[in-house]
Design brief:
Helices cover 47% and strands 14% of the residues. The protein is built from 15 helices and 10 strands. It has helices at residues 59-82, 89-103, 112-123, 129-148, 159-171, 177-196, 224-232, 239-254, 258-261, 293-301, 312-325, 355-368, 373-380, 385-391, 396-404, and strands at 3-8, 17-25, 28-38, 43-44, 49-50, 269-270, 275-279, 286-290, 331-338, 341-348.
Amino acid sequence: MAKAKFILKEPNSKEDTLIYLLYRYQYKRFKYSTGEIINPKFWNATSQRVKSTKQFPEYPEFNARLDKLENGINNAFRKLLNDGIQPNNTILKKALESELDDNILKPRQVSLFEFIDSYIEESKLNKSIGTIKVYNTAYKYLKEYSKKKRPVDFSTITLEFYNQYLGFLKTEHNLSSNTIGKHIKTIKSFMNEATERGINTNMEFRNKRFKTIREEADTVYLSVDELAKIEKIDLSSSPRLDKVRDLFLIGCYTGLRFSDFIQIRPENIVSNNTVIEIRTQKTGQRVSIPLHKTVRSILKKYNNQLPKAYTNQTMNSYLKEIVSLAGIKEKVETSITKGGKVEKKPVSKYKLVSTHTARRSFATNLYLAEVPTISIMKITGHKTERSFLQYIRVTQKENADKLLTHPFFN
């Protein structure tokens, strides 16, 4: 017997989440986005409807729309059987939408820019400031393109748009390949979210040629010897640099992101002060990291209560000063593709150091120390060995030195 059911996309969310219609028929399962969103606290999972509550006064109309959807899918399925048509998910979807066209006044179609506006506002409640900044910057360029070149909407996000937009960002804004890639990735995120919510039906953005471009970034890591130099600097006359140095070294020996290592609290230090256990902000993963002797020393210095960090931007500025004081000034050749042209120039290594260098240094130093890759990935959170190996920074000489100890070369 065919049966309709409504479920929440994220039933444990604290924010509004999408409602799906599930329809089981003839040992098949049909899933359809209703386009309706609701805060789970107002949802009754047993009745599969919104609770009758004064906190959500529009519940009668909301539930009436769900009733019409349930009636619509049942009518569509019954009509197909009566017409001698064997249902499948594609046929059933068409039949349902035809039924809805006949019985429900469809709301005005939301435009891409209207969706992005509301999505960014919604994201402010559950995403980081950095992510919101990325969204707003990508949105700014998209609106500019729409005004100067041709109007943009869901239906226009095609391969033709992709190729023209790449040219627009390269020639008119002289953006680097990685920055352009970030904007394309953000557009794909907007389109994916709109598709999940049943707002978008144009799937051309999922074409393999609609790809996120990137080039290897000129990122550096600090070796164990370089970290020792940084640790030995006497910064007692500059409390600001001393604090930043200590926090940075915590990152270098734990592999945690900036947003995580500045959040370490006494309760995160477990197993007789030998392990840090923390849930990472970006992925929500719980990681356990053995305490390096340098980390133990720094924690002891602050009685396990690390000082409050400066902003990431301020930390990056102070770090360059610290690494320069440590004498790490060798020249590193950098290259970047801007406006379609490759620009190369030598830069002092200390100028390339940022808070994220800590995490990259951790991964690279452990890899060179022959710690099993899978063990490092348990801490860094990389899902595949391929992505991990792209992340670490090992020179050709370091790789050769590492191989010298391998049985194949002995």
